[in-house]
C-alpha cells in the first residue's frame, strides 16, 4: 500500500512520473478514474484551495469526498501514544484512522505544525500517527514538515512555463508576515525543485535557516538530478538572473532561541524583504512570480507584484488540481 | 458570461423566462441538466434553505456542490482593493475568486450586509468584488443589497396561487424583531413583485424607509409591467384587500441616524406591527401569508398566522429549489 | 411512512429483519439502492463515525448526503411549542423539518441530551419535534434517549462473532469518565441486546441506574425473545463467564439528586471501574470487548484492553455502515 506524506515517498523518479501524468491529463482529461471511490479528508486546519481542489478531483473523476473538520463538528483527536485522555481530545487517532479506513478508499490529512519547534516538526507526529494506523492509502494535505502536493504543483508550473526544470535558476525568498508561519511550504518547494533538477537559491534573513535534515535531503536530490541548492542572506544576490521567484514567509529557526516578543520584533525588522517590482526587476526578463496562497497583500507581497502579468499564482493554484489527480491515481495503484 | 446577483441582471423579461422554466420543470422534471457540473458555494453567513436547496438542485440534476464556510474551515476573505492585510483576513477575493473559478463551473456567494449602512449596502462591496474577479458565472445566495433568488421564489408562489401576478395587490409589511436586520429580502420582494407587475404596497413605521435607489428601480419595473408601488406607515391600510401579505423585519434607514441603543428602543416601540390573524383578517378572503424564513415565532410573526392554512411559507421555501434550478440553467447558457 | 428513532419502532422482529439484510449485504454488496436519493443530515452535536458512515452508505449506493451543522453555518433551532423566539434560536423545527422534507428524501438527526435530566431525556423533545413535523422518513443518529443504529451495530458484531445471540451472556459495564455522559448508548445496547435474546448483565455503581421505562422496555423484549436482563453493582460478578464486555460511561441517575460538584467527586470515586485486562480475565476465554467509540484511553478504558486482540471496536464501528445501509433501505420501503 502506498502513502504520500513527503517527497521522500516518491523521490525524484516518482516526481517525474506523477508530473508527466498530470501534464498529460491536463491537456486530455482522463475518464472516471475514481469511479465510486471515496476520499476522506480530515482537516485540523483551514483550507480553501486544498479542500476545493481535492474534492473537485474526486467529483470530476466519478468519485466523492467526505470532508471532516477536527474540533468543529468532529471530535478533537489525540495523537500521543499512551496518553491519559482526560482533557479536550475525545478520540485517539489509534481509533479514528482505522475506523475511517473502513469507510473510505483513501484518506487525506491536513495538520499544521503545532508550534513545538523544528525538531518536533521534523518528527511530524500527527500525520505519522495516521500513517501508522490507516489501512488505506494516506495523502498529506500539508503537515508540519511538508506540503508535498504544493511542491508538485509548483514544479508543474515551472515546467509549463519553461519546458524543462533542469538547471533552471529559481529563488525561494523569505517574505515578511505578521506572525511566524510553519516551514512546510518552503521545505516542499525546496525539496521538489531540487528533485526536479533546478538550481535552487534560498534567500532569508539570518536566523531563519531551514531544518538541517530538510537541507540534507534537498542536497541529495540535487546531487542525483544535476541540480544545486545554495543559501544566502542577500535577496538581491539570489534574485539576479532567476527565472522564477517564489516568495513565502516562515518563522525563525527554533534553535535561534528567540522569546515570543523578540520574534515579532525580529520579523518586523525584515519588512523590507517584501517582494516589490523593483526587487523582481533584478530577476531574468522572463521571470515568473510564484506563491502558494493565501497571501497577505502588501504585507507578504505587494499588490504590484501580484497583479503584474509575470505572476502565475492562479495557474499554480489550478495545478494543485492536476498534480493531485495524478497523485491519487498513483496512490491507488499498487 | 452571465451573472445573477440582482434582479437588474435579468430585468422583468428575464424574470418571466426564469419563472416560466421553473414552473414547467416543477411539473415535469428535467434530466441531468448539470451533469458533471460543480457549483462552488461560499458562505460568509449561516443558511439552511439556501444551502440545502442549491445543493439539492445540483445533486438532483447530475451535478455536485462544494460548500465553503468563510472563517470556519476556510480563510477569512478580504474584499477591499489595496488593503494592507495585517489583520485577521488571510486571503483576498482577488485570489480566492479566480482560484475557485479554475476548480468549479459556477460560483454562489452569500454575504450579508456588514452593517455599514444603506449606502455601503447599495454598493454591495463583497459580492461585487467576487463579480469583478470570477471567471465563471456568479450567483448571489443573498448579498447586502438583494436576495434575488428569494424574490423569484416569492413571485413563483404568487403565480401558483393566483395564476397571474398582473396588478395583484400584495403587501410587504415591516415586522418586529430583536435586532435590526438587513434589507436584502424586502428589497428583493419589492423588486421582484414590481418586475412581475404586482400592485405592491409597502408598509413600515416612520424611519424604516428602503433605499432611494431600490425604490427607484422598483418604480421603473412597475412602469414597464403595468404594476405599481406605494408606501404607507399604516399597516391596516396596506392590508385592506391584499391577496398576499409578506411579513419581514428590517432595520431603520441609516440616514435616520439613530444611536444603537435608540435602535433597540425604536424597534421595540413597534412590537404591535407583528402580524396576527386579526391583522390578516383585513386582507382579501383568499389572501396568503408569505415569509422568507427563518422566522422568529411570536416575535416577528405569531404562531396563529404561521400555523393557519393561509400560510404558504413551506411552499415558498420549496420554490427556492425550483427557481434556482431554472436560474442556474439560464446562467450556464450563453 | 416509517421512522426509526428508537428500537421500539421496529421491535425484536424488525431488529432481526434489518440485521439479516445487513449481514447479507456485507458479504454481497447490493447495487445502487439509493440511486438519486438524498439523505439530509442535521447535527446538533459532533460526530466522526456517524457522519462518515451515513454519508458513505449513501455515496456507495448511488445516492448523496447533505450535512448540516446546527449553530455552525446553520441557524440554531427551537423545539419548544409556543416559544417566544427572542433569544439565540432563529428558526423553529416547525419550519425547518417540513422545509428540509421538501428538499431531501430522508432525514437524519443527531441531538444529544440537553442535560435536563432523565425524565426530559425520556421525552426526547428535539427528535420528537422533528418526528412530528417531517414529511419524509426520519432516522435517529443518536438522540437523548437512544442511539439505536449503534445498538444494531453492536448486535451485528455479536452475531458475527458468536453465530447467535440467543441466551448469549453479555455484560454492559459502566466505566469512568471526566464528566457525566448521556445514557443513549447504554440504553441502546441494553434494548438491542435484549431484543436479540441475549442474557444481558448490567453493572454500574450505586446511583447510576438507567431509567425505569428503558429497563421495563428491555424486560419486555427479553421476555419475548427468551433473553434476560439483570443488574448488579459488582463488576466482577457481571463479567464472570461473559462472552462480550461492553464498556461505556454514563452519568448518575437524575433522581439521585447530586449537586454538580458532587457528581464530579462521585464519578472520580469509581475510577476503579475502568476495564483492565485483569477485569477482562474474569470473562469467558473467547470474550470480546466492545465500545461505541469515541473512547478516552486510560480514563474510560485502558490501552491494554483496547489494543488486545479481543477488542472488536473497529469491526463494531464498521458495522455502523452495514446496519445503516440495511436500515435506510427498510425506511424507504413502504
From TrEMBL, chains A, B, C:
Its EC number is 2.1.3.11. Pathway: Amino-acid biosynthesis; L-arginine biosynthesis. It catalyses: N(2)-succinyl-L-ornithine + carbamoyl phosphate = N(2)-succinyl-L-citrulline + phosphate + H(+). PANTHER family: ORNITHINE CARBAMOYLTRANSFERASE, MITOCHONDRIAL, ORNITHINE TRANSCARBAMYLASE, MITOCHONDRIAL. This is N-succinylornithine carbamoyltransferase. HAMAP family: SOTCase. It comes from the Bacteria.
Amino acid at each position: 500500500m502506498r502513502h504520500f506524506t513527503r517527497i521522500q515517498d516518491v523521490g525524484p523518479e516518482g516526481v517525474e512520473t506523477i508530473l508527466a501524468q498530470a501534464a498529460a491529463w491536463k491537456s486530455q482529461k482522463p475518464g472516471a478514474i475514481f469511479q465510486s471511490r471515496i476520499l476522506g479528508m480530515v482537516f485540523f486546519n483551514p483550507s480553501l484551495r486544498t479542500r476545493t481542489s481535492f474534492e473537485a478531483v474526486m467529483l470530476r473523476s466519478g468519485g466523492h469526498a467526505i470532508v471532516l473538520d477536527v474540533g468543529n463538528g468532529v471530535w478533537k483527536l489525540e495523537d500521543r501514544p499512551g496518553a491519559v485522555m482526560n482533557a479536550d481530545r475525545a478520540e485517539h487517532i489509534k481509533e479514528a484512522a482505522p475506523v475511517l479506513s473502513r469507510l473510505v478508499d483513501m484518506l487525506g490529512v491536513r495538520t499544521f505544525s503545532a508550534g513545538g519547534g523544528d525538531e518536533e516538526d521534523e518528527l511530524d507526529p500527527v500525520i505519522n500517527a495516521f500513517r501508522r494506523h490507516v489501512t488505506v492509502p494516506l495523502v498529506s494535505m500539508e503537515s508540519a514538515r511538508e506540503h508535498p502536493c504544493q511542491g508538485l504543483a509548483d514544479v508543474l508550473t515551472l515546467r509549463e512555463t519553461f519546458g524543462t526544470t533542469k538547471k533552471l535558476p529559481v529563488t525561494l525568498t523569505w517574505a515578511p508576515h505578521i506572525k511566524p508561519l510553519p516551514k512546510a511550504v518552503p521545505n516542499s518547494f525546496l525539496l521538489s525543485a531540487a528533485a526536479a533538477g533546478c538550481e535552487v537559491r534560498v534567500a532569508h534573513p539570518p536566523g531563519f535557516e531551514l531544518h538541517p535534515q530538510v537541507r540534507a535531503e534537498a542536497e541529495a536530490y540535487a546531487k542525483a538530478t544535476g541540480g544545486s541548492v545554495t543559501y544566502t542572506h542577500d535577496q538581491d544576490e539570489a534574485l539576479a538572473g532567476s527565472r522564477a521567484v517564489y516568495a513565502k514567509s516562515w518563522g525563525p529557526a527554533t534553535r535561534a532561541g528567540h522569546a515570543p516578543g523578540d520574534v515579532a520584533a525580529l520579523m518586523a525588522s525584515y519588512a523590507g524583504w517584501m517582494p516589490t517590482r523593483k526587487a523582481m526587476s533584478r530577476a531574468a526578463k522572463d521571470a515568473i512570480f510564484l506563491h502558494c496562497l493565501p497571501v497577505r497583500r502588501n504585507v507578504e507581497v505587494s499588490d504590484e507584484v501580484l497583479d503584474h502579468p509575470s505572476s502565475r499564482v492562479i495557474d499554480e493554484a489550478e495545478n494543485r488540481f492536476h498534480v493531485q489527480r495524478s497523485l491519487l491515481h498513483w496512490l491507488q495503484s499498487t
